[in-house]
Amino acid sequence: MMRHRIVTYGGLLMASALLATVAGAPAASANPTTPMPATEKLVVVSGDEVMIRTPRPGGGLIINLYRAPEQSSGLQMLARLKAKGLVPAGVTTQVEADPMECTTIYAQAKYLCLKTVPHYWFNWRWNGFSDPQIYFRDHTPAAWPVRASVTEWNRAVGVDSYWTTGACPTGGRHCVHVWNADYGDDWVGHTYMEVDSIGFFIDGLVWVELNDRFSSAEDNRSTACHELGHALGLAHNGSVSSCMYWQAIAGPDPRLPLQTDYQVLTNILYRD
């Protein structure tokens, strides 16, 4: 049985839930202790998504994830990103073969990773809490249902997601800003993230942007859900019923995560 509690206080929404834990996933509760190997600049095009990876000065990676508008392919979006100088020179491009997405036993749900030895995945530090504390600082209007999406993501046991319009908290808690604006006609949603040399997200260097140019009551919930899932460490889900699906579909896009998305968070990325 699922128990769900929502409390609002001073602009802060806190939602908690209990889900049954599914055993059998590879444990990923302790990140590797050795620094990542040197990695090349890389662009990956998968369906309607483009991922741009560059080495981070001082170690780690910078990752930009872009979601294409409807009626636009990932390759078309990549051409526009290149024209605007958003893709570094000399970068290697791969199509439909993503070295940054790891498969799982949970159907078609995947997580962001680096397929090297040792294996690296991307998640938030615990910082002394029983679960990592992620605060999504919402700068968007009601047209973007960020609050509703945060509530859904908080159903995953192992990582706690909070919605706030107030100041970012301190004391080991993490903050992801969620912005909106008219960002032009290149992409619908964008998640920016930096990870350190062993794969932890870096505070203040992970954020989400939602493009008002393509704002619609039909798909805004899906876009918000999708980008927030990336900010927690998820890659795509091959199921057309998940908001983490990797391309636009005819009609309204899926608005919610699937149980398999929760299972990846609970049993892989944030497993105790």
Automatic annotation (TrEMBL):
Query: A Gene Ontology biological process annotation?
Result: proteolysis
Q: Which residues form the signal peptide?
A: 1-30
Q: Which GO terms describe its molecular function?
A: metalloendopeptidase activity; zinc ion binding
What keywords are assigned to this protein?
Hydrolase, Metal-binding, Protease, Signal, Zinc
GO CC annotations, alphabetized:
extracellular matrix
Which Gene3D superfamilies does the record associate with it?
Collagenase (Catalytic Domain)
Which branch of life, at top level?
Answer: Bacteria
Question: SUPFAM superfamilies recorded for this chain?
Answer: Metalloproteases ('zincins'), catalytic domain
Keyword Protease on this protein? yes
The portions of this protein that span the membrane are none
- InterPro entries given in the database record: MetalloPept_cat_dom_sf, Pept_M10_metallopeptidase
Please state every residue range assigned to the domain named Peptidase M10 metallopeptidase.
211-261
Per its record, how is this protein called by name? Answer: Peptidase M10 metallopeptidase domain-containing protein
From what organism does this protein derive?
Phytohabitans rumicis
